[in-house]
Each structure stands twice: as C-alpha cells, then as structure tokens.
Amino acid sequence: MFLSDNLKFQIENGVIKLVKCGNMENLQSRFAEVQLSGGNKDSHMGVKMVNSSEGPQLKLVSVKEEGNTIEVVQKSPQTEVKTVFVGYEDCDAFRAATTVTNISEEPIVLEEVSAFTVTGFGGKNAAQKADNFFLTQFIQSHHAEVQPLIRSFPELGLGGEVVQAQKKFAVSNIGSWSSKESLPVSILENRETGSFLMFQIESNCSWYYEISDLDEEYYIYLGGPNLLQGGWCEKLLPGESYTTPYVALTFGNSVNEVVGELTKYRRHISGLNKADAHLPVHFNDYMHFTWSATKQEDAANCAPVAAQMGSEYYIIDCGWHDEKGRDVGTEHVFHYLGQWKESKFRFPDGLKKTMDLIYSLGMKPGLWIEAEVIGDKCKEMLDYYDDDCFLQRNGKPVHVWNRYFLDYRNEKVRTYMTEVFRQMIEDYGAKYIKIDYNQDCGIGTDRNASSFGSGLEACSAAFLEWIHDLKERYPDVIFETCASGGMRMDYKTLSEFSLISISDQTQYLKAPYIVGNILIGALPEQAAVWSYPFGNDCKTPADVSDNRIVMNMINTFPGRLYLSSRLWMLDEHQLSLVKEGVDYYNSLSEMKKRALPYFPNGFTRFGDRGVCSGLKDGNKLYLAVWALQGETTVIANMEAPVKQVKIGYPSVTDATAEIVSEGIKVTFPETNMAVFLEIELIQK
After folding, report:
1. Could you count the other beta carbons within 10 Å of the beta carbon of residue 324?
2. Which range (20-34, 275-289, 447-461, 666-680) has the least confidence?
3. What is the mean pLDDT of residues 209-216?
4. What pLDDT shows up at residue 1?
5. Which of the 8 DSSP states describes residue 77?
C-alpha cells in the first residue's frame, strides 16, 4: 500500500496531529516527543516519555509529500523537529525516524527523543477495555532465542483502573548486544476487533519502547536510548542535529499477516548482496567439530566431503589466527585475539595452502574473525593501539570476558583492521567473512561523547559504516554477522550483512523451538541455522540415526543451511540423506526469497510436544513439522482448506501426512522425528 493509506494528518491552529495510523483511526495524537535538560516535563507522570518538554510546544512548519515519503517539520522555541515517514507500495508498512536540530543560540542537551509515538491503540476509552489488549514480546537468551511471551495489558499493569496511571510497561536494551534479552520487535493485538500492530526498532545497540495510557487511551513510544534507559543524552551546539534510529510498523488482521508485511518490508532494507543472491549452502567447521581450535588437518579431512555434499563455501572458524595461547587450552585463546595473523602452529604449511585446497575442491573459502575486540593478553596490539582506540568509561578501557573493545571512530583502528580484511580476502583468498562478536560492552563509552549512551551509538554506527565500505570494496564477498548466535538480531545490523547465525544452540532436539519462531527475527534469506548430523556425542556411524540426520537438515529449511560437524565420519547411506537434504534445500531457494512466514499453530515454546513453522508462497505452503518430547502425532491448523499434501523431505519415511478437518495431521512411527511438507491450499 502507499504511505498515504496508512498515515493521515490533521492541522488545526498551527498544530499537526496524526489522525490515522494503519488500522488505528481517530487518533488526534502528537507523534514526536523531545525532552531537553531543564525543560519542564509538565506532568506528575514524569516517568513517562509522552510528557516531554517540547512536545506540547511544537508548531507546524511544513508538510512535504514526495513519492512515498512524508516529511513533517515542526518547531518549538529551541528545536526544529523533523519526522520522516517512508512507505512501500508492496506492503502495509512504513518506517519513521525523527531528527532534532538546535535552532537556539545556546547549547541544548537532549534527554529523550522518540523516533515515533502514537496514541490511540484500541480507540477512545480503550483503557476501560484493557482485557482485550495483548502484547507479544520475544525473549532472547543464548541458546534460547526468539521465545514468545504473551501477556494481557492488565498483566502488564495497564488495567485502566484510573484515568491516567503512573504505571508504564517499558522494554529496553542497554549495550552493544542489541537483542540479548529481547528482540527489538513486538506485536500488539486487539482481540475485540481482531487487529494487530507489529513494530521493530532498528538499532544495533541500545533501544527503548514503552506502552501506557494517556487520558484512557493507550500509546506506544518507540525510540533509541534515553537518559534513564541507556545513560543517554546528546549535547547539541547551535545548528547541530541528532537523528533517532528508524522504527517500522506493520498492520493486519492476524499474526501471519503482520509478520508477512514486516517480512516484505525487511526485503527492502536487507543486506543481501549479489554473491549471496542464490542463497548458497555454507559449511562451517565450528559446531560439533573444531569448536575454537580449527587446524590444517580438519579441513583436509572434511572439505572433500563438504564439497561432495554440495557446499559452495567452506568457512574456517576460530583458531586459524595467532600463536599465543596454543599451550594453555582453547578456552584461553580469546585472551590473545587481535593481530589476526595466521597460526603456524595450527597451519604449519600456511593458511593459504588450506584455502587453495578448498578452491581446488570447487568451493570458496571463508574465515572467522572477531573484529571489534582484542584479547587482554595480546601484548602486540595493546602496545600498538593508543588509549583512544578503545571504548572507555571514566578513563579506563572497558574490559569484559578477557576482551577490550575497539573504537571504530578512531582512524588507527580502521586502518589496521582494513588491512587485516584486505589480507584475509586478497592474500588468503577468503570469499566469505564471518564477523563474530562474543561479548557485550555494556552501557557504552564516555570518551569523545556527551554520555555513555551517545558514545555507544556513535561507536556502533562507525562500525557499520566501516562494514558498508568493506562491502562496496569487496562486492563478491559474503559478510555474515554473529554475536554468540542471535544476540545482535536487529535490522540496522541486518541491513549491512547478508546473513546472521541465529543461534549457537548445540542440541538439535532443542533447535526446533528456536527455528519455529526465527522468522520473527530475520528474513528466511538471512536466518542461518546450524545442521550438525554427527554430534560430539557420536563416536561411530552407528550412533547416528536417520531421524537425527533428517531433523538436522529440516531444522535449516525455514532459513539458511549452515552445515557442520564431522561429516567424513558418516557412512554412505547417511551421507546420501545429507546430500538429499542439501539438494532439497537448494530447490527451495527461489521460493524462499518471495515467500512469507506462516505459523499454523502460533508461536512455539521450549517444551512443546509438536512444532510447525513454514513459508507460504501464493497457494503453496512449505511446512516443517517436528514431533518432540514423546509426541508422535502433530496437527497443523490451516487458515485455508487444503487441496493436497505430500512429504517433500525425506523422500523415504514411515511418517504419514493426511488432510483432516482441522488442517493436516502428521503421524510419526516414533518421537523425535521431523518431515518437511509441500501443501497446496484452496484459495478462499
């Protein structure tokens, strides 16, 4: 839809108000909030962001509509506030950001700035019907990403008992892992009307949103960090400006619809590049194989089999670099990160020889790097870098889990790391770079910044600007982002990277609980999922069942196939199941770039006995079904009647799929099995 279908404004006495936002109408709301240090927050509800010093003073300057962009400029005595809305013709979504400029003759300090605020979710007097409203938040943790938490507004403390309550419900991220506790994505539902609103905040560091009531109407405040949540303030000299992160909103009448609209929107901003356009298969030697100690003989053993299975890329993970730490165990290797020189101990014939081996097998090689840190015992780099090359607080470098954090605002950092990447790509021959980030720096840095939070924003932005330059310099190289799995799953990051490792979950029977929801966090084209058929608990091929191989492959089908483990230990039959899975994955790639997520039974949670998650492409539905926790029968509920269903993978199975009144019933001969279905729907 066009932007004008989603946003409508009304101007009265020099004040512009938002009167329609998607499926919300008659709003009469202010949509920009700005709080200045010393400004009067004219309410005893001072904890709420909607009662800002500048918001009530804003007067309209101009409204400019060009193409599918609307730019609204307002002014208060000290600030010019410009909110830009961008729409897209192929989806019911828009994005918004706000820029504040100091138009006074004195410095000002920003304490809070909304990217976008809207009041009126649920209509007038909505707080009197609080039981109708629900929020779905997606909780994050290492090895347990994208877990839904659905609560009614009264359960959030927003019960509407008084006209304007003190209570607000707020969710924030503070630090450089943008999604370590919660995705910057949530869904609001009005069960009385059956309407849904979904939003995401596009920040690769700290962010914030709050929901509360204002004169019996519910509002949503979306933005980056602020003074209370993120230690953020921004000093602006006369003429200087600050711009918030973008936020995006989508609308619909079901979960599948709003997730689908957000998916279509994300395709406009994703970081996929030409080299990654066909969604190639990657093998990475880390999971259930080398862990943090890759070495020359590992590639010699496994690369030929990875090539035989159809991998286009072979990525050498942690351990190819540096000499120090080799005698103290791999758990201490991170103390010595930073030089990024090849390890003669692990690659005695030189890293280039192994990279050339990968090329000779018809694959393209890749390398791992943790580009934003150095180890706390890496004396060479500690001697090389100056104090201002590191994130600091109170004059001391930030020190977390044996790492110091590099400040990419510093030219010396950028120059050294650019040369590192040049060497990895041009000298060693890497066509794939996995950029990991295994710790959070916390609230930020006060060096060369107005505050800890603004320093973190500046450093985080500088790193992505550097990545953007690398991508332009090396357009034939795929760049992956990872942060101990999915701890940096946001669409500021994913607008620069081709794909993301969505989790480091090491148990394949737990992976479906993450994969079942992962398309909430990332596009199917970008969500890389590990497949490790020969796990650490396996000693011989007899320890690996067909069901184990099949589930490992199906775990990846809703997203990107990220193959790993000691494949050369599998027997011929087992390898044929892997190869069949790779071939089947490849057959889905074109569909995957246009299909939309589909959750027939809603979201999944750890411990569920049956999991279903898929992709809908017109009247075709491709659905992964897992039977777990002792279950042998799973029913997938269908919104539309089913014309036919077949099992696409594996080609040989004792499982059956049949059409029933509720949708599709899958029966397995035993638990801990999975199938991937191809379904033809009858369009209503």
Report:
1. 20
2. 20-34
3. 91
4. 45
5. S
Query: Pick the residue with more confidence: 213 or 269?
Result: 269
**pLDDT tens for residues 24-67?**
888 888 999 999 999 999 887 778 999 899 999 999 999 999 99
Place of tokens 């000299």: 237
Tokens of 413: 């950092």
pLDDT, the chain, mean: 96
What is d(CA 587, CA 581) in angstroms, rounded to the nearest whole number? 10
First and final C-alpha spacing in the chain: 22
For residue 330, the model assigns a pLDDT of 53
CA 584 to each of CA 473, 580, 621: distance values in angstroms, whole numbers, following the listed order = 34, 6, 15
User: At 183, which amino acid appears?
Assistant: L
All residues at 6 or more sequence positions from 567 whose CB lies less than 8 Å from its CB, including other chains: 302, 305, 306, 309, 533, 534, 575, 578
**Coil, strand, or helix at residue 158?**
coil
Percentage with pLDDT > 70 across the chain: 98
CA angle (442, 370, 471) in 5-degree steps: 105
Measuring CA to CA, which residue among 442, 54, 450, 453 is closest to residue 227?
453
Angle of helix 572-587 versus helix 546-554 axis, rounded to 10: 20
SS3 call for 631: coil
Omega before 541 within 30 of 0, i.e. cis: no
Whether the CB-CB separation of 218 and 211 falls below 8 Å is answered with yes
CA atoms within 13 A on the CB side of 468: 13
What is the C-alpha separation between 454 and 346, in angstroms, rounded?
A: 41
Average of pLDDT values for 667-684? 96
Residue located via tokens 């897992």: 626
CA 115-240-97 angle, 5° bins: 15
pLDDT band (50, 70, 90) for residue 504: very high
Question: Which amino acid would we find at residue 76?
Answer: S
Tokens of 567: 């494949």
Q: In 3D, which of 484, 241, 256, 229 has the Cα closest to residue 373?
A: 484
515 near 559, Cβ under 8 Å?
Answer: yes
Determine how β-strand 432-435 pairs with β-strand 478-481. Answer: parallel
Burial of 265 (0-12, 13-18, 19+ CB in 10 A): buried
Q: What is the pTM of this model?
A: 0.97
Q: How far is CA 46 from the centre of its chain?
A: 32
**Selection from 592, 588, 598, 585 nearest residue 520 by Cα:** 598
Mind listing the pLDDT tens digit for each residue in 284-334? 999 999 999 999 999 999 999 999 999 999 999 999 998 765 554 555 688
Per residue, what are the HEC states of 439-490?
CCCCCCCCCCCCCHHHHHHHHHHHHHHHHHHHHHHCCCCEEEECECCECCCC
pLDDT (0 to 100) of residue 328:
46
Secondary structure element (H or E) that encloses residue 384, with its range: helix 379-384
φ and ψ of 489, to 5 deg:
-100, 85
Taking alpha carbons only, the member of 247, 131, 157 closest to residue 211 is 157
Q: What was the pLDDT predicted at 120?
A: 86
pLDDT tens by residue, 128-186: 899 999 999 999 999 999 999 999 999 999 998 877 788 999 999 999 999 999 999 99
Task: Return the HEC string of 561-586.
Answer: EEECCCHHHCCHHHHHHHHHHHHHHH
Close Cβ partners of 604 (under 8 Å, ≥ 6 residues apart):
148, 512, 513, 516, 517, 611, 612, 613
DSSP state for residue 374 in the 8-state scheme: E
Mean pLDDT of 88-100: 96
